[in-house]
Amino acid sequence: MAKAGKYSAPRGTVDLVGDAAHTWEFLTRTASRIFSLYGYEPIYTPIFEQTELFVRGIGEATDVVGKEMYTFEDKSGRSLTLRPENTASVVRASITNSLVGEGRSAKLFYAGPMFRYERPTKGRQRQFYQIGTEALGLDSADIDAESIIMLMHFFEEAGIERSSMRLLINSMGDENCRPAYREKIRQHLLNHSEGLCEECNRRAETNPLRAFDCKNEACIAIMNEAPKLADELCDDCKEAFEKVKYYLDEAGLDYIEEPKLVRGLDYYTRTVFEVQVDAGLGAQNAIGGGGRYDGLAEALGGKDSPGIGFAVGFERIALVLEEQGFEVPRLNRPETFVAIVSADMEDKAFELANDLRKAGHAVLLGEQGRSLKSQLKNADRAEVKRTIFVGPDELEKGGVLVRDMESKAESFVAFADLENYLKAE
Ligand code: HAM
């Protein structure tokens, strides 16, 4: 295929054009509509932050911080990083703007690009788009359940079939029970070091729980035999997790308890969850995930303040929607085409198109200087419902000719009746 132009989009990035752009627009619109039902409000934070924020927030031993960050020095020598995710930024913003503390809480949602230097493959980009939410300053189990319920509500409203989604949940424990569990997993890894891959051997010292995510068959078999965190939770964590499940059961939400779900970012405590879909996706089958991070605000220098949230991945949702044959609804798809019958009608057609748009109709106007035939080709391509012909004969009679594009029936409509005519159709 001939390459168009001299420059291409950088590896791991894509232009969102056509259906992809409409899908992103539809998903962000759906997110605002659904999340606001639960009292969430929009927030926009910078695309880049001080590098230290992510190192502290996400954890030095994670793949994201260790291998995947786009870090650069600006002209004054500051180390900045393109956000690899948005939770650390939102918690930072909540501290900067005093959104939480002293009994206050904040429920926030966001949408935008994130950046991770990963190997690009199906459903995995270097610049990818997330939609996410964070509930800050709230720590009761109903908030965990609400977050999960809202996530599934969003996916269903986005058009993903419920039966195609698998909701996995787990508890990661807290600072009371996790250190002992981490040590147990470290021991387990050391005891099986011969069978483990190089990376998992390294993980034994840096981040033992990450070994649960290894895709190597031998490592999977060894980790299947590892102690389960569910058996090691302290009483408080156990009780909190039982309550989350109680609320999910009450809401009639199906889920799978997955003791091996550990997630890739270090800030998680207690409830974690992930939604997976197989059809349409390869190995990158998580369309969204999240969890509680009760120690994050303090780690970032704020007051001790709990939090929970999730993020969903646009690219993967788009692949799933395509696989399921979902037709993405377009906002204001033009249903009316205004055709200019002859050059002397250009100004009148221009005026009519503007009047109709102000009255709330989505209108495409024929291009000036083009023949009527070529204008009508555009009308066909746009699949409009009707074409309004602005021509001298009808204009003299105070109206226009309207053609129904399906039946091809035509009728004269006076300007005074046009508004009602379009509404009635
Ligand atoms: P995460 O699991 O790293 O969590 O990412 C959430 C979702 O973003 C994934 O499930 C996936 O759909 C999508 N995603 C991640 N990396 C890529 C990539 N390279 N290309 C395409 N899609 C990708 C977080 O980011 C947390 N901040 C979520 C969260 C919010 N936890 C608490 N609050």
Topology:
Layout (H helix, E strand, L loop, with lengths): L18 H19 L3 E2 L5 E3 H8 L4 H5 L2 E4 L5 E4 L4 H10 L9 E10 L11 E10 L4 H17 L7 E7 L6 H14 L6 H9 L10 H8 L10 H16 L5 E2 L11 E9 L8 E7 L3 H4 L7 E7 H10 L12 E5 L5 H13 L4 E3 L6 H10 L4 E5 L1 H5 L2 E6 L5 E5 H10 L1
The structure holds histidyl-adenosine monophosphate.
Mind explaining what this structure looks like?
This protein has helices at 19-37, 51-58, 63-67, 87-96, 141-157, 178-191, 198-206, 217-224, 235-250, 296-299, 314-323, 346-358, 372-381, 392-396, 415-424; strands at 41-42, 48-50, 70-73, 79-82, 106-115, 127-136, 165-171, 256-257, 269-277, 286-292, 307-313, 336-340, 363-365, 386-390, 399-404, 410-414. The chain contains 15 helices and 16 strands. Helices cover 37% and strands 21% of the residues. Strand 9 and strand 10 (286-292) form a beta hairpin. It has an eight-stranded mixed β-sheet with strand order 1-5-6-11-10-9-7-8, with helices on both faces. With 425 residues, it is an alpha+beta fold. Helix 1 (19-37) runs antiparallel to helix 5 (141-157), helix 5 (141-157) packs parallel to helix 9 (235-250) and helix 6 (178-191) packs antiparallel against helix 7. Bound molecules: histidyl-adenosine monophosphate. The site of histidyl-adenosine monophosphate has 27 residues, from strand 6, strand 10, strand 11 and helix 11.
